[in-house]
Amino acid sequence: MPQVAERQKPKRATTERRTHRLIGSKTPMATGTLGKALAVLDIIAQAPVPLRFTDVLRQSDQPRGTLHRQISHLVEEGLVTVNADHSYTPGIRLLKLAARAWSQNSIRSIAEPHIRALHEHTGETVHLGILNDLEVIYVDKIESRQSVRMHSQVGNASPLYCTGIGKAMLAVLPPQEASARAQRFSYRQHTPTTLASPALLLAELEIIRSTGISHDREEHEPGIRCVAASICSATEEQVAGISVTAPAYRTSKETIAEWEQLVPATAKAIEADLNDQIGPRAGQ
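^ thats the sequence. predicted structure below, dont judge the formating
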């Protein structure tokens, strides 16, 4: 279990809830009937466009016959829909389950008024994300009022090493654990400023630990910058983070300096409300 490093004020050790996702163009070998079905569902749900059977087969480690049976079961359960062109999309039942999970996420509901206030103050896109192994999963997003918007979506995942929220969450873990995770990334040079090595990432984490502020300097998407900070809850064992994100041409030095005050303050307010709400249960 990961533990959260100490901050300026004492905190109990924390971890994120680990729900490993299947990532990459080829899914890892799943075990058991349920694992194989979830692997297929993951391929279909994560695809940017509807996939046909042969598309799923190329991304799966399952034999053709087994894959056909798995998809048939998923369709019967309402988790996958077969379209008129014989492609597959997430089923209504899956969408309902996702909506229920989103609405019942405790940190999302607690953070919502805070990130809305942050959005009102900055006018830019605000993200809320949670730590999931080597990724940040976005659980809430308020779009910018400006014309240029981000490509991120609620439910999407991004690597920790090249995102503001991701680096903020990594930095709040104990150095030994952050170092271990830094060795596990399949680094990709998304942009010229991507920190695409463990050494570069770990040096950046040291700075974030000292300031409590994380930056994305066009490291994941060209022309996109953000300021982020982490959120920690000991009793719920959660690690999360928030960010304000905007096109680089709208982020002057003065704007960044303002966000460097607003974002950590908002993160601390969310953290206080989260611990106030869940704290009494810890003593029961």
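Confidence is low (pLDDT under 50) at residues 1-29, 280-284.
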